[in-house]
Prior knowledge:
Elements: H1 3-14, E1 30-36, E2 39-46, E3 51-55, H2 66-72, E4 77-81, H3 98-111, E5 117-122, H4 124-135, E6 140-146, H5 156-160, H6 173-179, H7 183-193, H8 203-213, H9 218-227, H10 229-241, E7 249-254, H11 261-269, E8 273-278, H12 285-288, H13 290-302
Parallel strand pairs: 3-4, 3-5, 5-6, 6-7, 7-8
Antiparallel strand pairs: 1-2, 2-4
Helix pairs in contact: 1-2, 1-13, 2-13, 3-4, 4-10, 7-8
Amino acid sequence: xxxxxxxxxxxxxxxxxxxxxxxxxxxxxxxxxxxxxxxxxxxxxxxxxxxxxxxxxxxxxxxxxxxxxxxxxxxxxxxxxxxxxxxxxxxxxxxxxxxxxxxxxxxxxxxxxxxxxxxxxxxxxxxxxxxxxxxxxxxxxxxxxxxxxxxxxxxxxxxxxxxxxxxxxxxxxxxxxxxxxxxxxxxxxxxxxxxxxxxxxxxxxxxxxxxxxxxxxxxxxxxxxxxxxxxxxxxxxxxxxxxxxxxxxxxxxxxxxxxxxxxxxxxxxxxxxxxxxxxxxxxxxxxxxxxxxxxxxxxxxxxx
Length: 304
C-alpha cells in the first residue's frame, strides 16, 4: 500500500464517526458567513494549496463533503459552501436558477481571494458547478460532476420521463404545507429510493439533515431549486452553444444510479471527459461508498 493510500485512509477515518452520523470536518476547518451576490452563504474553509470548491446538492448540505474535504485539505485549500437557501446559508425568496447560483460561488471565491480553482459538484451541485464553470471557463482547472443530469443538456428530455423524478415538478405553496412538519418523511424518500442500500443512511444522518430542512424557508428554497430547471435548461443550452468546456471533466455515476450515463451527459457539454462508475453505490456516493468516491476524485485531481 502506497504512502498516499495510507494517508488517504487515515484522513477518511478521521472524518468518519465510529457510531454513525454526519462525519465531522477536521479541526483545522473554519466557518464564516460570506456576503455573495445579494445573499449570504455559510462557508467552510480548510487546508492550504491549490483551491478546490465542493458544491452539495438537495437532501444534504456542505456537511456531506467531510470525508473528501479531509483528504483534499492535506494539500489543497478546500472551500465548501452551503448553497443559497440551504443548510446554514441565508434563504432569499429568489435567485435559485443555477446561473445565479454559479455567480454566488464566484462571489465567495472573490471574497476569499481565490482565482483559479478546481470544482466538484454532486446532484444539484452539479448544475451549479457547470453554470459557474461555463461562465468562468478560464478560472476552472478541472471539473467533477457527480450523479445528476444537467437541465437541457444531452438526454435531458428522456431523463425527465423517469417516474422516480416526479419531485422535479413538486413544489408550490400547497406542497410546502403538505411537507411542513413532515420534512423527515419527505426526505426519507430520497435517501431510500436513490440508495443502493438505504441502511447506509443511519438515523443520526437522517435527523441531522431533516432538522436543517425544517428551518423556516428551507423547504421553499429546496423546491425553488427544482422549479428553476426550465430556466436552467435555457441557460445551459446557451452555454453549450457558446462552445463545449475544454478543461478535464470527470463524470462520476453510482453503479445503481446514473452510472455511465453521467459521461454521456457530460460529453454534450465538454470535450475532455473521463468516465467513472462507483461500485456498491446509488446516488449518494459519499455516504454509500466514501472510500471509492474519495479515491476516484483524488486520482483525477492529482493527474497532470
